[in-house]
Every structure is written in structure tokens, then in C-alpha cells.
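Memo to structure team: turn this sequence into C-alpha cells by end of day. - J.P.
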Amino acid sequence: SNAVNLTDGLDGLAIMPVVMVGSALGIFAYIVGNANFSRYLLFPHIPGSGELLIFCAAMFGAGLAFLWFNANPAQVFLGDVGALSLGGALGTIAVITRQEIVLGIMGGIFVVEALSVMAQVMYFKYTRWRFGEGRRILKMAPLHHHFEKSGWTETQVVVRFWIITMLLCLIGLASLKLR
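Reply from structure team:
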């Protein structure tokens, strides 16, 4: 949940990956909720979980409507309450459908952003203890700010992270038939 909050630092950066990952999890929810599809694709059948598709569709529609006002330059912001609740919703859907590892793959941007913050803090504390002064791995954490400090524009960072998320969601969906 907090990884989505850490990602929410640029206009439109967090909401589109949430929409894409939520949509892909909706497909998983429908499949594990349908006895025929789950048997064919070798998934455990979870009665009633197909109803999560409705929730995922609502999240999809609300996310795209929000993106209309959150795209650069943003007029409305997600904030901690929105980011944490959307991250929690994605995690809950993954737990209900038993697709936690697939969520880690499809939400790879969220994972990398959180790991970049953890690595930066741990390295800074270690070097401060070891050498007397804190040193940094990245120019700034989370990772999207490092790319901004490296010369990428805000729009470049956002769109490239969207593209990476789209590819990761396709990899996650490809796992449907890899069982």
C-alpha cells in the first residue's frame, strides 16, 4: 500500500499503473471466480471472487476520470489517503484471488520505487555510521525523482513508467497460461 504512496510524486504517475494493474487483477478475479475457466487454466476456483471484476471496473473508470484532472499540470491530487487506499485495494484483490506474486510482477514500478527508498535510506545510514558522513546511491529518492534530477522531464518519466507498467501487466497476464 505504501509503495503506491511513494510512487505518487509526479502528475499522473501513480494512477495509471493502478488502473492497469487493477484491470489485470480484474481479469484474474473473473477467471478464478468462474469454475470452467479456472479448471481449464489450472487455477483454484474461488466462489464469488468473480464479483471483484465489478470493483476493478469501477476502479478503472474512476481512475481514468481522475487522470483527466491529474495529468500534467495537475488540478487535483491523489494524496496519502487516495494512494494508500488504492494500494490497499490492489493488495486485497491479489490476496483474495491468490495472485500475490503476480501483483509483485505487474506492480513492478511500485516495488522498484519502494526498494529505491529503502536502499537509499539504508546506504545513507550505513555510510554515516561507517565514514562519518552519509552518502547516496541515487541523486534523490524515490527513483522517479532521481530520473528528474538526471535531466528527464516530468512527462518523460511518467510516460516511460506507464510503458513499463503496461509491459509488466502483459507479462503478468501471460502467466495465465504458464501453469
